[in-house]
Sequence to fold (322 residues):
Amino acid sequence: MLTDAQTLTLQDRADAYAQAFPQWPESHFWRAGRWLYAFWEIGNDYRNKTAYYGAYPARFLDRVMAMFPDVGSRVLHAFSGSLPPGPYDRCDMAQPAEFQCRVESLPARVGPVWPLVIADPPYSKADAAKYETPMINRRAVLAALAKVTQPDGHLVWLDTVWPMHSKRDWITVGWICLVRSTNHRAPWMAYGRCGYSNPPYGPFVQQLLAKAKRESANGFKSVLLLPMRVTQAFKAHVLHGARWLLFCDKRITFWENGVPRLNVRALENDGKLVGDPALFDSIIVVYDGVWDVPSIDTWKVPIHVTRADLERAQERRKLLVA
Ligand SMILES: C[S@@+](CC[C@H](N)C(=O)[O-])C[C@H]1O[C@@H](n2cnc3c(N)ncnc32)[C@H](O)[C@@H]1O
Fold:
């Protein structure tokens, strides 16, 4: 039994989720370094409760709330859209809500009152146009939400990107990859014929390999840049399933948030502006139909970082450090 007085650790939250959904062990959280990860393929649950464009998938909120058994009704739904009234507060500038205003203007009305904020903003200008609202400035919204969230509170942000923000406002503690499965409203194939990904390392990769193999049988091509690890999943889904296994002829510099990752040591010690390449263990796995054994080749890594890219990365770093 958890009471308000108890402070839950991240592990407690992961355990609370696992207890609430023992029937979906593959959706449970795992720990890698400082962060929690989960992979939610909502599948049969993906029946939206309302016809509102962009409405939450059915049961998505039940899953999120399972991690926060300690917050009760002290929850703010930012960008609440069609969410009906309930034991929580809502903020939406265009839909009925307890706070019918822009999320950015909340700090002018309340202080740091909510231990949990769940935000579902428009993801693009085209999405915002559907709500007849201007596209948000994500950085400004994150700063505003920090002012209305209790110290040690949490923000669950549903989006296609994790926005730029000040480290004084938010510390990242976890990632949930939310995927819609096949035979539902939006399988991957609905968005195109081919996907490219450089997924975060960890157990997530194993699930992605299995999914890519499954989807390739349905005609969806996946191209994945992965660390070379001869795991069970590698044997089961790459050595038996992938079309190509390509070895890179040079190191690849990671890109994050639209800019290359900088070699901070070279910058701080020697004033040199250079990229920070991945370890020389990157392989490219291509799924294109299901194959008994993959073909093997070398991939000539193209020039993928220019001086201008590095300068943009340096500008971004200055902003984040400031
Ligand atoms: C993705 S929808 C949210 C849908 C919601 N999760 C649901 O289940 O219905 C985004 C919502 O953000 C609202 N919105 C857009 N910009 C906003 C802003 N700056 N402040 C508050 N609400 C905003 C839109 O009116 C829209 O209802």
